[in-house]
Design a protein that fits this description.
Chain lengths: 259, 365
């Protein structure tokens, strides 16, 4: 396998007396989907916020393309090529797809001393990029609110990729979606991987993780319970690791099948 | 992969979700109505047109500021007090202190725009709703205005601005009239009414287009272009649509919001300056309830109170409806208190329509 593009070593994060992360190590390579699994409260959110520059780690090192990085803000991380797509904060429903897609990176057309938003270019590129991801928009001016949840995630992913993301962090992109929409988003993740982008896929759904993941890391109570490669682990083992074993096994016998 | 159920979108539905729709139909209705009941009252003669056009322009000037601020997700309830404050400051500086009027106007703009920035800064830094912060400023500024006025002149009305402003270049930019030659020419052709007696015999009754209307048109065009055609306009929508999502992609939300508070203060001061130049006086009670009239114009214009959606042209049409109805009831001899009944009714209708439109756009059920 190639060199990891981002490597987090022994990351600790304390909030006052609370130890949210107690020494987590994690890395991801270009063209790889590394799934980060964990139940609610396992520290997934804190961990990705550390990776995307929102939090500074209390201790530990972050290597980005082999160099030690110290992100001061999400903007720094973004500038370096680390893009994060948040589950519920990806898109603004009242704004058009084009306006959302280019938000913060609007193309400019100059007319004399005046600087205008170049809608012609923006609309064309938006349509092209969305078509690449398999979404055929009616028109680029349609509001994001008219798209389904899966399509919104796809717009957000396409946007991150278009603006040169090298590492794409997806925060539970499938957790609020229906079956068909989920498979669309998973297919999008696969397309992104094939473009050589490193994907960090956060989820608590083992089946979603196994569908696209190359490697799997389980986080529990602020610690990693180890990393496994595709094919080295069964869904049941992953599920048990996430939940901390025993308890869930008992539950399952009464529920039947994998949760 | 597009959802096949979304494909049947009629043109009608697409027109329906334009923010200006309600205001356009409202404006047409209002004009038809008054043409029918007040068509022969002089309301649509040159003087009548000037009358409601000036009133509408006044509403439009403050509505443009309120509109951009509301789309950016905030309110400013201190607009009315800011109008009173700006007027009194101009009058004190020019009449009481004897400053040239242009200097008084420029300093007043500097002060009010700084106050707008403080409004914005407080809202951003405290995270409090702008409703509360600007409500505080509504009282603070009104109180300061009365106190300053009484402290310097023992009165709450300061006159003599007209005399002080004679020949002042900047005063003319707010209180003057343009196209006077054209109006004189139309009068000479006998197309428009002229004075038949007195010192002004032969001069047109309507001498030209008041600068107030030029300011209103200028601000409307500026606001519309800024909002719909520029990068900054996209940031305004984003800041009001979802500030956190906008921050995540690098939109400087705080800067956008503070600038919009400053722009609202600028608009209020344009209103105040034009009013002071027209009346030749300032009064501490000017601008009462203007903040609500601005907000009503904006809402009639299709903006959502929650931010992220609206139109400057819509707000301007809202202001036009406002002005035409207020003056139209006067021309038609109706009881003027009915104006408020009308306002309340149209406000409710506009909000219901806007909420419905929002459901269509966001696909909420």
């Amino acid at each position: 396998m190639t060199e990891p593009i981002i490597e987090m070593k022994n990351i600790e994060k304390h909030f006052g007396a609370v130890i949210a992360l107690g020494g987590v190590s994690f890395d991801v390579c270009p063209g790889e989907v590394h799934c980060l699994l964990g139940d609610n409260g396992a520290g997934k959110s804190t961990f990705i916020k550390t990776m995307s520059g929102v939090h500074k780690p209390t201790s530990g090192t972050i290597l980005f393309e082999g160099k030690e990085m110290n992100f001061e803000s999400p903007r720094d991380a973004m500038a370096a090529g680390i893009a994060t797509v948040y589950q519920d904060l990806a898109m603004i429903p009242l704004m058009s797809v084009t306006r959302n897609f280019w938000m913060g990176n609007e193309p400019i057309r100059k007319i004399g001393p005046l600087r205008f938003f170049d809608f012609e270019l923006a609309n064309r590129v938006t349509m092209e990029e969305m078509a690449k991801m398999g979404i055929n928009l009616r028109e680029p001016s349609q509001a994001v609110g008219t798209l389904s949840g899966g399509e919104r995630q796809t717009v957000a992913i396409a946007r991150a990729v278009h603006f040169g993301a090298k590492v794409l962090i997806l925060d539970e992109p499938t957790s609020a979606l229906g079956v068909r929409q989920t498979s669309n988003v998973l297919a999008t993740i696969d397309k992104v991987r094939k473009q050589g982008i490193a994907v960090v896929f956060i989820t608590h759904n083992v089946r979603h993780a196994l569908a696209v993941g190359d490697r799997f890391t389980v986080l529990n109570r602020g610690k990693t319970l180890g990393t496994a490669r595709r094919g080295e682990i069964t869904p049941e083992e992953l599920q048990d690791m996430m939940a901390g074993g025993q308890e869930l096994a008992q539950l399952e016998s009464s529920l039947g099948g994998t949760v | 992969m597009t959802d096949e159920r979304l494909k049947q979108v009629s043109t009608l539905r697409r027109i329906m979700i334009r923010p200006e729709l309600g205001a356009i139909s409202g404006a047409i209705l209002v004009f038809v109505f008054f043409l029918m009941i007040a068509g022969d009252s002089g309301m649509f003669a040159p003087q009548g047109i000037q009358n409601w056009a000036v009133v509408s322009a006044q509403f439009a000037i403050i509505a443009v500021g309120a509109c951009l601020l509301m789309i950016a997700g905030e309110f400013d309830l201190s607009v009315g007090s800011m109008i009173g404050f700006a007027g009194i400051v101009i009058a004190i500086l020019s009449v009481q202190w004897g400053w040239p009027v242009w200097a008084a106007i420029l300093i007043t703009f500097a002060i009010t725009i700084s106050l707008g920035a403080i409004n914005g800064f407080l809202v951003i830094k405290t995270g409090l709703p702008s409703f509360i912060v600007t409500l505080a400023f509504l009282y603070i500024l009104r109180g300061l205005t009365i106190w300053l006025s009484i402290l310097t002149t023992q009165k709450t009305v300061i006159g003599g601005v007209k005399k002080a402003a004679e020949g002042d270049w900047l005063a003319a930019v707010f209180g003057g009239k343009v196209f006077t030659g054209f109006f004189q020419w139309m009068a000479d052709q006998g197309w428009i009414e002229t004075f038949t007696r007195g010192t002004r015999a032969g001069q047109p009754v309507v001498e030209g287009v008041p600068m107030l209307i030029i300011w209103a048109l200028g601000l409307i065009i500026f606001g519309q272009v800024l909002l719909t055609k520029t990068r900054f306009g996209n940031w305004i929508f984003a800041a009001g649509g979802d500030a956190q999502a906008a921050r995540y992609v690098g939109v400087p939300v705080n800067r956008v919001k503070i600038l919009m508070f400053m722009f609202t203060a600028f608009c209020a001061t344009v209103f105040a300056t034009a009013q002071v130049m027209e009346f030749g006086s300032a009064a501490a009670d000017r601008g009462l309830l203007k903040e609500f009239e601005a907000i009503i114009s904006v809402v009639i214009g299709g903006a959502l109170l929650t931010g992220g959606y609206g139109s400057v042209v819509g707000a301007a049409l809202g202001a036009l409806i406002f002005g035409v109805v207020q003056q139209g009831l006067f021309f038609s001899g109706a009881e003027s208190s009915l104006f408020r009944v009308f306002l309340g009714t149209i406000l409710i209708l506009a909000v219901i329509l806007n909420t419905y439109i929002r459901r269509i756009i966001t696909g909420e059920r």
